[in-house]
Amino acid sequence: MEINQQCVVALTWKLTDTLGEELDVLEDPVEFFVGGVDLFKKIEQALQGHGVGAIVRLQLEPEEAFGDYDEQLVFLEPRSLFPAGLEEGLTIEGTALPPGCNPEAPKNMLYTVTELYPEHVVLDGNHPLAGIALRLTLQVKGVREATLDEVGRGSAGTGFFRIAAPHEHGPGSTSLH
Fold this sequence. Notes:
Distance between the termini: 28 Å
Structural class: mainly beta
Strand order of the largest sheet: 2-1-8-3
CATH architecture of the largest domain: Roll
Largest sheet: 4 strands, antiparallel
Low-confidence stretches: 162-177
Strand content: 35-45%
Helix content: under 10%
Number of strands: 8
Mean pLDDT: 89
Shape: elongated
Number of domains: 2
CATH class of the largest domain: Alpha Beta
């Protein structure tokens, strides 16, 4: 079976930046719904017509992937608003931000604690790969017809590239892992 709209494809991949630095490797195949919300459109387009065993290489510019870096999605918040166990790298849903945080911080974002200081916390709503051009080597490990449930949801349930809800600031709202 060849990959087309509304099928499910099992993929492995290697993700690097344009300098060749390895950013992510997926060795065990994961299923994605083609024609829904699981994959970026450029990935779906590149996969069309390929079958099991195909290796597809492509480059994604920031606007085709996680968006440009948006400085307006970085917020400096008082350290006193957060619990003592807060650590760099932790993520916080916008709806779970403590009372007293900047009301301009969108609630439908996923924020990463990027820096901790005695008096403040830096929260970044950008995806960690925002602003970075990416090179992706995909290997097709399986292709099957989608179930009616998958077609109805527009997802195979993985949503690897789409775990955070889109927000009003554009394509940088998606999340990897």
